[in-house]
Structure formats: C-alpha cells, structure tokens
Design a protein that fits this description.
alpha+beta
C-alpha cells in the first residue's frame, strides 16, 4: 500500500495545477501507481496527486493520421479497446506480456513513459513507432504544451525532460498500416518478470512481398535509454527478403549497442538472437515464411 501524508485527487486540469502549485515540488504524480510500489517507503514524497479522475487525461482520439492516447489509459486497453487494437497494434503485442491483467488494469501508458525505466515494456514499441510525448504545464494561468520524440524524452534510468510542474498529458502515435509486428522479451522469471531485454519489430514488404520496404527495430533494457538498431534497419530496406540477408544484417549490430552495467555478455548474446527471431516473426505475420 502507498502511504502518503496527503493524497489529493483533482478532477480537472485546473485543480491539478492548483495542487501542484501548492505542493511546491514535494509531490508524486500518481495514476495507476504500479511503478511507485517498487519504491522504498522513504523515497515517496509527502504528497501524492492522483490524476486518475481527470477525464481529459483519458481521451483517445484519431487526428490527421495520428492516435492521441491520454496518459491515464490503462495498459489493458491496448488489448481490449477496438481503436487501439486496430490503430496501434504493436503496443498490443507488448501489453500481452505486461505483467498480469490485474496490473495491466492499473498501470497506465503515461506512467510507463514518465517512469522512464529502461525495462519498461511499452517503451520499445513507442520507440519503433517514432511516438511523440505531449506534455502539459501551466504558465501564467495558460496551458502550455510541448511535443517531444520518445528518444529525446527519456534521458536515462528514471530520468526524462519533464520540468518541475509539467506532466505527461498524452502519447501521440502515427497510424502505421501494412506492417508485420513482433515483440520479444526475456527476464529472470518465467512470469510477471522485469525485462532483462525487451524489443519491438515492425516490417513492411513491397506489394509482391519480395523486398523489405521498411524495417523498424527497437530495444529496451540494454542500456540507460531505448535504442533503434538503425544500421540493421538501413541495410535491410530495399534488400530481397531472405534468411541469408537477415543473417548478413546481424553482422551490422554495433558492438557497443549494449550499454548496461550488468549481465552485459548475456544481453549481447540475446540481441542478435532477438533481431533474427523478431524479424522472422514479423514476416510470418505478413504471411512470409522463410
């Protein structure tokens, strides 16, 4: 149980920023709160500001080829909500492996992003999609928004570019169609595990299904920030789809891609295996068997 000296539950954006102003930096923003349970009790702030009752932070909408996903959206919704399943199916692949349903009902996409953990399972999917984080703050009684790419937003373990008094309002994901998808993770337990390595894959083929038209590969938990394997992506685009070409691409994985402080050799062994398996699974989803 999370224990705070004060626990506030604003229901509007205006109330939220009044609470933030009154707290004078000594507060935790809480929605699902699942990431905070792992904190030691003494690391909790004196005050919690629970944003879960603010309807504006739960909106899901489609606009000009983008899906805007409110920060309060529970991870379980990426399995159940028809719009999210249809428009951002890659996140569903990760959500299936995200803890269990009880935790997925509480954990939110905004919390996963704001927590900025290298092991966050939603992070590689957002990285592969080139998602944008929309933040919200209040200056001189006016709402101020910033839009920041996921790779620029996360700065390190538990660190991001949020300023004092600024929150994650929404995640913006481009609608990307015609891709085969895959998500792969491994941890130290068989279930409910924290990822030792997690990864997301998107592959698009030409109409004849012979050529790699687009390839996106993203990894988390192998360093302080999420990473795209851009050398492999660039090499594959325009090449004939074959197992031989994929094997050739594995040689382009940078030797220093893994920047973790622990289990370095293990992670270095996992990465090329995941790249090959993830690409093959994504191709299989397109009906291309190698």
């Amino acid at each position: 149980m999370l224990q705070y000296k004060e626990y506030l539950r604003p229901t509007t954006i205006e109330e939220l920023f009044s609470c933030i102003k009154a707290a004078d930096k000594a507060y935790d923003i809480v929605s699902g709160g699942t990431d905070l349970y792992a904190k030691e009790q003494e690391r909790l702030s004196p005050m919690a500001i629970d944003i879960s009752r603010i309807p504006a932070l739960s909106d899901i909408s489609l606009e000009d080829g983008w899906v805007k996903i409110g920060a309060n959206t529970p991870v379980q919704q990426f399995i159940e909500n028809a719009v999210l399943v249809d428009q951002v199916p890659l996140i569903r692949h990760a959500a299936i492996y995200f803890a269990d349903q009880q935790i997925r009902e509480a954990a939110t996409i905004g919390g996963n992003v704001a927590n900025s953990s290298p092991t966050g399972d939603i992070i590689p999917t957002l990285t592969a999609m080139d998602a944008v984080i929309q933040t919200l703050s209040m200056e001189d009684d006016q709402e101020v928004r910033r839009q920041i790419s996921i790779l620029e937003f996360i700065q390190g373990p538990g660190r991001n570019v949020l300023k004092d008094g600024e929150i994650v309002e929404a995640i913006l994901c481009p609608v990307l169609t015609g891709y085969g998808l895959a998500f792969k993770k491994v941890g130290q337990r068989r279930s409910l595990c924290i990822s030792t390595v997690n990864s997301a894959f998107m592959v698009k083929a030409d109409p004849a299904q012979k050529i790699f038209e687009d390839v996106r590969i993203a990894f988390g938990a192998i360093g302080p920030v999420p990473q795209r394997v851009s050398d492999v992506e660039k090499f594959l685009v325009g090449k004939e789809i074959s197992e031989e070409i994929i094997n050739e691409a594995l040689n382009l994985i940078p030797a220093d891609l893994v920047k973790s402080r622990s289990r370095i050799e293990y992670r270095r062994n996992v990465v090329p295996n995941f790249v090959k398996a993830g690409l093959m699974e994504a191709l299989a989803e397109l009906g291309i068997a190698l």
